[in-house]
Amino acid sequence: MSSRTSDRNPCPVSQLMTMLSGPWTMYILWILSTVGPTRFGALRRQVEGISTKMLTERLRMLEQEGIVNRHYEPTVPPQVTYSLTERAGELVAILDQLNGLAQRWYGPAAPDAAPCLPTATPQELTL
Amino acid sequence: MSSRTSDRNPCPVSQLMTMLSGPWTMYILWILSTVGPTRFGALRRQVEGISTKMLTERLRMLEQEGIVNRHYEPTVPPQVTYSLTERAGELVAILDQLNGLAQRWYGPAAPDAAPCLPTATPQELTL
DNA sequence: CCGAATCCGAGAAGATACTG
DNA sequence: CAGTATCTTCTCGGATTCGG
After folding, report:
1. Going by C-beta distance under 8 Å and a sequence separation of 6 or more, which residues neighbour residue B105?
2. Distance separating alpha carbons of residues B24 and B13, to the nearest angstrom
3. Based on CB atoms within 10 Å of each CB, which residue in A23, A30, B84, B92 is the most buried?
4. Which pLDDT belongs to residue A2?
């Protein structure tokens, strides 16, 4: 009954926020930006806790938005590598600032954990 | 069964992203930053489509995170006003940049719609 | 009257097994 | 290895009710 994605085209920010607010979206972008082009399986291992279903779904969405590139290599076994587009650079820059902010608020991260993985799914932060 | 919010304290960015990725969170912050301190009912009308339950829930979370202030005025009828804390300023600055980015990508917003309201719920952007 | 808590249904996200 | 299908689980959201 409520609105679907293309009911109207209300406002740019809203559109962008809606995308980023999608489950796992930020994490995927963050991982791709820190570890560079990554294959599907590796990506799934990096974004700890994500299901294959969610990962494909989000990647498809990000691909449609022009944020990630999907490179299919028909070897045996096949290899699919995902990477950030040029457009994504601006977005990642903002995520970087978010990182800086988080460090100031919660203290710096342990220097070991490579790209800082999530523990809880976005939905679980209800407190 | 899976992880709850306080399982570990993994990484600052992750924590912050998890909070922002929560449903409606960004919209609420955006509205509060653009229209200033707002009462519950008005806020609910601004964040179009949100239920009172979700709004209370999110506001409680944001309050615990030190992002919003809750001011209760025991008049008749009672008035509860929510406003951004000082800490939220840094966060809003980032949202502002997100706004700029969105304008470059999707074109500028119509100058009328005050703070750009969402149409779809965050969960609905599955494409 | 304004704001918060409760119950229940719809629909999304998680887990697992399976296919190309 | 990459992705899909299916089933289960549980969050989200609406209406109603309670409290001040």
Report:
1. A12, A16, A87
2. 19
3. A30
4. 34
φ, ψ of residue A125 to 5 degrees: the values are -80, 75
* Residue whose token pair is 């709850």: B4
**Would you give the distance in Å from CA B84 to the centre of its chain?**
10
pLDDT-based confidence at B120, cuts 50/70/90? very low
One-character DSSP codes across A40-81:
HHHHHHHSTT--HHHHHHHHHHHHHTTSEEEEEE--SS-EEE
Any CB–CB contact under 8 A between A19 and chain B?
yes
B53 touches chain A (CB under 8 A): no
Considering all CA atoms of chain A, what is the largest pairwise distance in Å, rounded to the nearest integer?
A: 47
Specify the pTM: 0.84
pLDDT beneath 70: ranges in chain A: 1-10, 109-127
A1 touches chain B (CB under 8 A): no
Q: Which residues of A touch B15 (CB under 8 A)?
A: 102, 106
Residue nearest to nucleotide D4 (CA to C1'): A53
Which chain B residues touch A51 with a CB distance below 8 Å? none
